[in-house]
Amino acid sequence: MITAALLGNPNVGKTTLFNLLTGSNQYVGNWAGVTIEKKEGYIGKNIKIVDLPGIYAMDTFSNEEKISKQFLINGNVNVIINIVDASELNRNLYLTLQLKQFNKPIILLLNMIDVAEHRGINIDCKKLSQMLGVTAIPISASKKIGIGKLLELLNNSDFFNAPVDNNFHFDNEKEMYSFIENILKECVSEPKSHVVTTTEKIDKIVLNKYLAYPIFFAILYIIFKFTFNWVGQPLSDLFSDFIQNIFTPFVLKLLANSDAWFKSLITEGIIGGVGAVIVFLPVILALFLGISFLEDCGYMARAAFIMDKLMRKMGLSGKAFIPLVIGFGCSVPAIMSTRTLESEKDRKLAALIVPLMSCNARLPVYVLLSSVFFPGKQMLVIFSLYLLGIASAFFIGLLFNKTIFKNKDEPFIIELPEYKLPEFKNLMLHTWRKGESFLKKMSTIIFSASIVVWLLSNFNFSGFSNIDNSLLSYIGRFISPIFKPLGYGSWQNSVAILTGIIAKEVVVGTMGVLYGQNLRGVILNYFTPASAYAFLVFVLLYTPCISTIATIRKEYGKRMMFFSVSYQVVLAWIASFAAFNIGKLL
């Protein structure tokens, strides 16, 4: 078995190549840190490709660099496949020279050679191979150019004939960059006059110091319009009508001769719980289609760059904006992606504020209550919650930076990729994976929780009972005084919040079980617009789900976990109390 380590700077097409070589469907991202851990794939039975994190150097400042260096030392690597951007060799060759120290055969892939040639850049690959002591191959991973030659090299093990000694020794970075400059003079010819690219023209507008923030928020607003007004919500309404008016009556007809308890379990427990949540699948898919488009076209890296100035105020670099954006999807991968930040302080501070970002699990709760209590203004209400999450993260970040995290700020380096039209397949794949994750939750956590809630709401210690004397009502009444000052102190709402710790979708699932099929009509009796918004604020800010809590514990330990859970409950209660009382005045 031959082991090939795939390495390169972020945004050079490394993951695209990995997918192409191994037939993997791994997600292709556009920013640093999307590949957090090494991933493996195979070419036939004899060649293993290990996809290592995107890095700029082997200086071991970040966890990504540590992972890569450790693997090159201990991973029994036979060959290093170093992929570089052919149009940016001056930056990419720094890593190549550092890889020479491992004394392994190196295949240097000059990716995006078609883009480089389009810009008038010509590279003498033969001379480059000789000067660096590597095997250089021009390729275009996205267009599958040059891949055949790479496969031929790997399958025939021709790379074993390449030189493996490191004859390059540099005392400092200045010497190294001077050497790279000499190589480029000898091997690369570029047009004398600089041609302004489309990317540079677009960046002059979207990164303009006066226009950057308005454009950023305008883009977010359009995505929300797309999700809640144009596509997601209308489809969700159709789905809801189908379940309520066609599917449920059909199931009831099938169960006509069944026992009452079994009929109740299926219709009120399972369809009421799972069905109340699953109708929001189109909304979630629409939102992630929008976010995936921004990622794949190259704008999200710009968003991180734009946000750097604001992030600095709370002691974080713009790179920390990326875990926060991932947090819009799910807090678990977002907290794991904090590993990519350079300092321990940045990693901990980012992990503490990531759960304040509004993850997609909260979306069903937002859509349900906003559509019932704020018809016509639904999109604005949900948009305000997302902004409130960002503002809360900023406030808490600022507070913690001035108190418990006072270390020096870290430098921020990010590669801004070329703008490109996203590949349809990748776009659909990324969007679907979010939907797939949502559906998996439906069939496991939400399904199980709905049955447990149904059991607790239909039984007490004496056996079968009505809902008002059930175990769940006892639990709800015990904790409901906590929520009475916030305007939604019914035992049903209290229980819904409690079960939301399992997963935030369970809040709606629980309501579906407790309030029955006509959920939208019944909850009008349990909320006012002010208390409904206060409830949404609490759902936005309180304790994250069990998976997130477990991830914080795994990454940062018990103390950090308890601190995260505690401060979020206090913050959510205070913010919800304020929202309710302000709402009553309006």
Q: Secondary structure elements and their pairing?
A:
Blueprint: E1 2-8, H1 14-22, E2 39-43, E3 47-51, H2 63-74, E4 79-85, H3 89-99, E5 106-111, H4 113-118, E6 122-123, H5 125-132, E7 135-138, H6 147-156, H7 173-187, E8 188-189, H8 198-206, H9 212-230, H10 232-254, H11 260-278, H12 281-297, H13 299-313, H14 321-327, H15 331-336, H16 344-353, H17 363-373, H18 378-402, H19 424-458, E9 459-460, E10 463-464, H20 471-483, H21 491-499, H22 505-515, H23 519-522, H24 529-541, H25 546-556, H26 558-585
Parallel strand pairs: 1-3, 1-4, 4-5, 5-7
Antiparallel strand pairs: 2-3, 6-8, 9-10
Give an account of the 3D structure.
This protein has 586 residues and is an alpha/beta fold. 61% of the residues lie in helices and 7% in strands. It has helices spanning 14-22, 63-74, 89-99, 113-118, 125-132, 147-156, 173-187, 198-206, 212-230, 232-254, 260-278, 281-297, 299-313, 321-327, 331-336, 344-353, 363-373, 378-402, 424-458, 471-483, 491-499, 505-515, 519-522, 529-541, 546-556, 558-585; strands at residues 2-8, 39-43, 47-51, 79-85, 106-111, 122-123, 135-138, 188-189, 459-460, 463-464. A hairpin with a 2-residue loop joins strand 9 (459-460) and strand 10. The protein is elongated and about 85 Å long. The N and C termini lie far apart (70 Å).
* Spatial strand order of the main sheet: 2-3-1-4-5-7
Number of strands: 10
**Total number of helical segments?**
26
Give the low-confidence spans: 27-35
The best one-word shape is elongated
Q: How large is the radius of gyration?
A: 27 Å
Structural class by sheet pairing and helices: alpha/beta
Distance between the termini: 70 Å
Q: What percent of residues are in strands?
A: 5-15%
Largest sheet: 6 strands, mixed
Nearest-integer average pLDDT? 84
Percentage of residues assigned to helices: 55-70%
